[in-house]
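Fig. S4 source data, part A: sequence.
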Amino acid sequence: MDEFRQNKYTAGFNTVTDTEDFDPGLTEDVVKKLSAIKNEPEWVTEFRLKAFAHLQTIKEPTWAEVDYAPIDYQALSYYSAPKFRNKD
């Protein structure tokens, strides 16, 4: 697998896309903003907020016999979408 990581892309094709991104982290404001962008009804926003509140109360399970570093959920961005160009 390391041999593939060492290879650099040489074909020269590149697409640059402007995106709208949320800053990293998950808060009630992020949940509300995401729901607003998606133009969701109020009941969906309330469902999301209730799920977010529940997420704050649970702990990650440790019963599996796996070894991995803890996930920093506040380091993740929870929204990214391409910006649309105006057709001029």
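Fig. S4 source data, part B ends here. The longest strand covers residues 19-21.
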